[in-house]
């Protein structure tokens, strides 16, 4: 016992020195003392704020009650809209938004009343295509180790209900469209998390099976046969959860007065070609605003597609002063657009207003939040999180935007009658992507798309799928 005590006594200086060295990067007692002392500077105010936040949310206490942006609902230019959609508890905003753009076109051209395309129909094939994309990517990269960055990313992201406009483009051009009453929404279409977790678990299992078979030297044809059998199981799960997609149907068009106009038989592709008919792959371009990267350059993202045989989307990075005229021209011509942003920032969900003046966090916590948009992007503090349909702008006497409005897919009771209103300042800070018809884009801007795009990795933070 004495020997152990003597050993500890002799080693005490070294242990103490080690603790002192470790404390150089850690929180010390002196630091804690200074923190506590700073709390006593205005103890009454700090205590009052602490007591208030014990029973309410930060946003409630930081709300600016005198924000004039909360009551301004006038728009000088607005695309007519009929009916608000509701994605419910799913990450399908990208799909609802893309279909809402086409829906508005069909309603306008054929003088319809409220009308929706079937989101379930498109979602079924989106999930099947994503499953194939994952399995084929596993086969293509089977010679790489499991800790390879791309392989790791694949197994972390085997399937998602989120996406971008390129998913709408891939699914619609390949499988067509059907009206909502032909394939209605189901519980699992509106509540996707459990189905997604089951499919993801199965895909990870299948991915490992394919890697093991490839490691044993199985030929390409045999791997493809295995994959086809796996996809049959995925198809069955989707059919049970969502219903099996129709191949042919009869539909009666009804005018704005609700009276039948005509009845006809269609396939999903013939329905798409007759009522939409646009070449989604060539008629639209996607622009983005990412000040953390050089402007007037094009970018593409590895695996940024919803189907294996689909095209990887190319993004043209433009400053805001070049994006806004495109949006204004489209709205003035009564054409809605696919639009995405970081919707959770400064959103007042009760009023449906997105304004930098909604919440005063600086005064509440007595500290500034000065990061620029570029800095927020590069530090993972901000990225595109939600897609909506841009459909209105309020212009001043000089033709400059004061505020914007989107048709959302959170139901008619959400926000401002199912819409969100955003100030132009908020638009500058948190808008990320816009899909616009080429006819509204200047020729010199279109020429920028001819350059070879810079390919970014699949895990680039700005290009996560919108939900």
Overview of the molecule:
Helix 5 crosses helix 8, helix 6 runs parallel beside helix 10 and helix 10 runs antiparallel to helix 11. About 3% of the residues have low confidence. Strands 1, 4, 5, 6, 7, 8, 9, 10, 11, 12, 13 and 14 form a 12-stranded mixed sheet that branches. A two-stranded antiparallel ribbon has the order 2-3. It is built from 18 helices and 14 strands. Strand 8 and strand 9 form a beta hairpin. It is globular and about 70 Å long. It is an alpha+beta fold and 467 residues long.
User: How far apart are the first and last residues' alpha carbons, in Å?
Assistant: 65 Å
What structural category do the secondary elements indicate? alpha+beta
| Residues in β-strands, percent | 5-15%
Described by the principal axes of the CA atoms, the overall outline is globular
Given as residue ranges, the uncertain stretches (5+ residues, pLDDT < 50) are: 4-10, 12-18
How many β-strands, per DSSP? 14
Q: Over the alpha carbons, how many angstroms does the gyration radius reach?
A: 27 Å
How does the major sheet shape up?
Answer: 12 strands, mixed
Number of helices: 18
Helical content class: 40-55%
Average predicted local confidence, pLDDT: 92
């Amino acid at each position: 016992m004495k020997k152990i005590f003597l050993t500890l006594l002799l080693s005490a200086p070294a242990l103490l020195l080690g603790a002192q060295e470790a404390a150089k990067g850690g929180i010390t007692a002196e630091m804690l003392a200074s923190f506590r002392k700073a709390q006593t500077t205005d103890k009454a105010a700090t205590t009052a704020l602490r007591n208030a936040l014990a029973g309410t949310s930060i946003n409630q206490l930081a709300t600016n009650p005198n924000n004039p942006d909360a009551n301004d609902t006038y728009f000088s230019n607005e695309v007519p809209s009929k009916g608000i959609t509701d994605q419910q508890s799913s990450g399908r905003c990208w799909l609802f938004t893309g279909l809402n753009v086409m829906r508005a076109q069909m309603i306008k051209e054929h003088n319809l009343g409220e009308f929706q395309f079937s989101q379930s129909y498109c979602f079924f094939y989106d999930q099947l295509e994503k499953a194939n994309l994952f399995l084929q990517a596993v086969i293509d990269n089977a010679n790489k180790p499991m800790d390879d960055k791309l392989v790791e990313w694949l197994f972390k992201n085997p399937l998602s209900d989120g996406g971008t406009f390129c998913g709408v483009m891939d699914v619609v051009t390949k499988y067509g469209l059907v009206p909502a009453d032909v394939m209605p929404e189901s519980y699992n279409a509106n509540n996707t998390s459990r189905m997604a977790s089951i499919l993801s678990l199965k895909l990870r299992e299948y991915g490992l099976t394919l890697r093991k078979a490839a490691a044993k030297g199985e030929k390409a044809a045999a791997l493809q046969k295995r994959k086809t059998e796996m996809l049959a199981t995925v198809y069955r799960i989707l059919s049970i959860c969502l219903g099996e997609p129709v191949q042919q149907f009869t539909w009666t068009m009804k005018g704005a007065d609700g009276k039948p106009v005509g009845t006809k038989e269609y396939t999903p592709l013939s329905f798409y070609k007759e009522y939409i008919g646009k070449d989604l792959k060539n008629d639209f371009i996607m622009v983005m605003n990412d000040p953390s990267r050089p402007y007037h350059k094009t970018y593409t993202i590895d695996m940024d597609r919803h189907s294996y045989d689909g095209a990887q989307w190319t993004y043209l990075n433009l400053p805001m002063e070049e994006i806004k005229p495109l949006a204004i021209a489209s709205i003035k011509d009564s054409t809605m657009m696919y639009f995405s942003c970081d919707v959770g920032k400064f959103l007042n969900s009760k009023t449906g207003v997105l304004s930098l003046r909604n919440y005063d966090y600086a005064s509440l916590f007595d500290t500034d939040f000065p990061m620029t948009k570029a800095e927020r992007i590069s530090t993972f503090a901000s990225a595109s999180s939600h897609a909506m349909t841009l459909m209105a702008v309020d212009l001043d006497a000089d033709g400059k935007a004061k505020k914007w409005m989107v048709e959302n897919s959170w139901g008619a009771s959400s926000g401002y009658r199912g819409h969100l209103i955003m100030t132009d300042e908020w638009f500058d800070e948190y808008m990320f992507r816009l899909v616009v018809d080429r006819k509204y884009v200047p020729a010199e801007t279109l020429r920028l798309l001819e350059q070879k795009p810079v390919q970014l990795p699949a895990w680039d933070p700005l290009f996560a799928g919108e939900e």
